[in-house]
Amino acid sequence: MQINPRKAAIVGCGFVGASIAFRFVQQGLFSQLVLVDVNREKAEGEAMDLSDGLPYASAMDITAGGYDDIADCALVVITAGANQKPGETRLDLIEKNVSILNSVVGEIAARNFAGILLVVSNPVDVLTYAAWKRSGLPKSRVMGSGTVLDTARLKQLLGEKLGVDSRNVHAFIVGEHGDSELAVWSGANVSGVDLDQFCHLRGDPLSREEMERLYLGVRDSAYEIIHRKGATYYGIAMAVGRIAQCILRDEQSVLPVSVVLEGQYGQTGLCLSVPAIVGKDGVEEILEIPLSSQERMELERSAQQMKQAITSVGL
Question: Is 177 a catalytic residue?
Answer without folding.
Answer: yes
